[in-house]
Fold Malate dehydrogenase.
Amino acid sequence: AKEPVRILVTGAAGQIGYALVPMIARGVVLGADQPVILHMLDIPPAADALNGVKMELVDAAFPLLKGVIATTDVVEACTGVNIAIMVGGFPRKEGMERKDVMSKNVSIYKSQASALEKHAAANCKVVVVANPANTNALILKEFAPSIPEKNITCLTRLDHNRALGQISERLNVQVCDVKNVIIWGNHSSTQYPDVSHATVKTPSGGKPVPVLVADDAWLKGEFISTVQQRGAAIIKARKLSSALSAASSACDHIRDWVLGTPEGTWVSMGVYSDGSYNVPAGLIYSFPVTCRNGEWKIVQGLSIDEFSRKKLDLTAEELTEEKALAYSCLS
Ligand code: NAX
C-alpha cells in the first residue's frame, strides 16, 4: 500500500474549504489508490466551524482518508505536509483601502511561508488560492527561500476552466473536446483569456477555436470580459463567491502538476516568471504550462500578435504595481 500524502488546506472552515476537503478525501487530486492525511488550518474565531468540518469528514467514512488534523496552530498545520493549498486569507471588506487588505495578507503569507519553510516536507508543492493570489504567492516565495521557487504557484486554473466552459457553450461542443486556452497574467480582471492557440477536437482532427467561432469581435470583446468578470457574476447570482468551481479547479491544478498533463495539452498556472514572452522576471504570472514528473514547464514559442502583446503587458504592469504595494507593506 502507498504511504499517505499529507495535504494542507488553510482557511479550511471557509466556503472553498468546505467544497475542497471532501474532493481531496475522495481521491480526486491524487487518484483512487493514494491515501491522504488532511491538515486543516483556520483562525481561532473559526475553530468550532473547523472542528465541525472534521466531524463531517469522519462521518463520511472516506476509505482513503487516513487522518485529519484540524488546528489553529500554524506549525502543527504545516508539519510534514507534501502539498499545501493556501485558501485562507483576509478578504476585502467594503470601504477598505487596497493597501490595508494587502498589508493583512502580506503579514499572513509571510508568517505561513516561514512555517512551511521550517516544517513542511522537503519538496512540498504549494498553490495559493487566496486573493491577491499571485502576490500572496510571491510573498510566500520570498519568505520561504529554501522551498524551490518552482514549487510555489498560484491558482489561475479556475479562469482557464471558465474559458473552456465559455467556448464549449458558444460552439455547443463538449468541454472535454476544447483545449489549450491560455490565461495570461494576474488572477484579476486584467487577466488575458487567450484562445489564439485553442482547438476543438473533431472527427477530422483539431480545429482552431478562432476559425470555428468566426467572430473576432466576440472573441476580443465579450468572451474576454465574461471570463474576466465571471467571479463577480457568480457573486451576483449566488450572493456568495465561487466555491465549488474554485475547489474543483484547485484539484485540477494539483493533479495535473503531480500526475502530468496529457500529451499535446497545456494548462494555465501562476508560476514564477523567468522572463518568457518578455514578461518581467520575478513576478508570479499565469502562463501556459505542461507538466511531467511533478514539474511544470512554460510552453515556449507561441506566436503573440499585437493585440495579445498589449494584454500581456497590461496585466504584467498590474502585477508589478501589486508587487511594489506588497513590498511597501513590509517596511
Ligand atoms: P471564506 O471567507 O469563506 O473562507 C476563508 C477562510 O480563511 C475563513 O474560514 C477564514 O477564517 C480563514 N482565514 C482567514 N485568515 C486566515 C489565516 N491567517 N490562516 C488560516 N485561515 C485563515 O472565503 P472563500 O470563499 O473560501 O475564499 C477563500 C479565498 O479564495 C479568498 O481570498 C478568495 O478571494 C479566493 N478566491 C480565489 C480564486 C482563485 O481562482 N484564485 C477564486 C475563488 C475565490 O474568490
User: Anything to note?
Assistant: The first strand starts at residue 5 and ends at 10.
